[in-house]
Amino acid sequence: LLANGANGMNCANNAYYGGGGGAGGSIWLTTGVLDASEGHRIEANGGQAGGSHTARRGGGGGGGRVVIQATTTSSETPTDLWSVNGGSGLAAGDPGSARLEANGTVNILSL
After folding, report:
1. Distance CA 111, CA 85 (A)
2. Contact 24, 4 (CB under 8 A)
3. pTM of the model
């Protein structure tokens, strides 16, 4: 599942200048049994800023939000392919947040 922000665009007259990256989107899943085995990606990353000149670029987009609510999981749920990173730019976007609610526990994931 992907909900990534768009990358910033370069200005029409000068590729040095660029717009900021778009913010990551949101993913909210509610299910009875979560079967998210190894290899499944879930991303809500911020977009990168446009422009090629380091001091004249826009800022990176902030990371998005991921919430997964499940009654139970069918197995261990690996989260190594989940990401809510901020995009790069003159100032990097802040990371978003990810939350997994399953088996009666709430886990705030540090990604």
Report:
1. 8
2. yes
3. 0.82
